[in-house]
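quick one before i forget lol
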Amino acid sequence: MSFSGEMAKLQEIVNRLDSGEMSLEESLALFEKGVALVNSCRKFLDKTQQKVTLISMDSSDNEGTSWDPLGEGPENEKKG
C-alpha cells in the first residue's frame, strides 16, 4: 500500500473510533491496525528523510543537510 493509501486508511480508522459505535473488542482491533499503520508511515517518512538528506549533499557538506520543511532550523534564524 502507498503512503497516501495508508494515511487514508488511518484516517478512516480514526473516524470509526471517534464514532463510538463499536464494541470494545472491535475498537481494540481497529486501534491495533491503526498503530501498525502509524509505524509503517513513520518508517516510510524516516527513509524519505534519509533520502532527502543524501540528495541534498554537496561538496562542501560531507554529512548532508537535514531537511527542514518549515525552515525553522538554526541556519534559518534571523540574525541581528
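fyi The helical segments are 3-19, 24-55.
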